[in-house]
């Protein structure tokens, strides 16, 4: 008799903290300023386009190493990006 595989409960995406949502918003704005689309960025990173889409919608978080890779692919200074995030957080009171 075959045993049934246990179903995993559906896992809802964690809500983005306001701070992380600001990081995402800055990255999206910077990408758009460069005129580079998601497909081009994903190609530069050697990742599928869904990687960029999920990152930009908050379904996937990125770590510092990935942030640096995105900055390099967009030809942005990571320090400038972090400064933009910091300024945006101050405006929102975070």
Give your account of this protein's structure:
With 94 residues, this protein is mostly helical. It has a single domain, classed as lambda repressor-like DNA-binding domains (434 Repressor (Amino-terminal Domain), Orthogonal Bundle). The protein is 63% helix and 0% strand. It contains 5 helices and no strands. The chain is globular and about 35 Å long.
Please tell me the CATH architecture by its name. Orthogonal Bundle
Low-confidence stretches: 8-13
Task: State the total count of DSSP E strands.
Answer: 0
SSE order, as H and E? HHHHH
Helix content: 55-70%
Q: What value does the average pLDDT take?
A: 89
Question: Can you identify the CATH class?
Answer: Mainly Alpha
In one word, what is the shape? globular
Please count the helical segments: 5
- Report the C-alpha radius of gyration, rounded: 17 Å
Q: What's the CATH H-level homologous superfamily? A: lambda repressor-like DNA-binding domains
Distance between the termini: 57 Å
Count up the domains: 1
**Could you name the CATH topology?**
434 Repressor (Amino-terminal Domain)
Helices and strands: which structural class? mainly alpha
Residue fraction in strands = under 5%
The biggest beta sheet reads:
none
Topology:
Layout: H1 18-34, H2 38-45, H3 49-57, H4 64-73, H5 78-92
Helix pairs in contact: 1-5, 2-3
Short account of what is shown:
This protein has 94 residues and is an all-alpha fold.
Defining traits:
94 residues, mainly alpha, 434 Repressor (Amino-terminal Domain), 5 helices, globular
């Amino acid at each position: 008799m075959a045993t049934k595989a246990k179903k995993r409960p559906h896992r809802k995406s964690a809500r983005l903290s306001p701070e992380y949502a600001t990081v995402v918003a800055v990255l999206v704005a910077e990408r758009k300023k460069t005129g580079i689309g998601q497909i081009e960025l994903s190609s530069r990173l050697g990742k599928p386009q869904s990687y960029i889409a999920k990152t930009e919608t908050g379904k996937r978080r990125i770590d510092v190493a990935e942030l640096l890779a995105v900055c390099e692919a967009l030809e942005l200074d990571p320090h400038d990006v972090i400064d933009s995030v910091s300024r945006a957080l101050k405006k929102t009171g975070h």
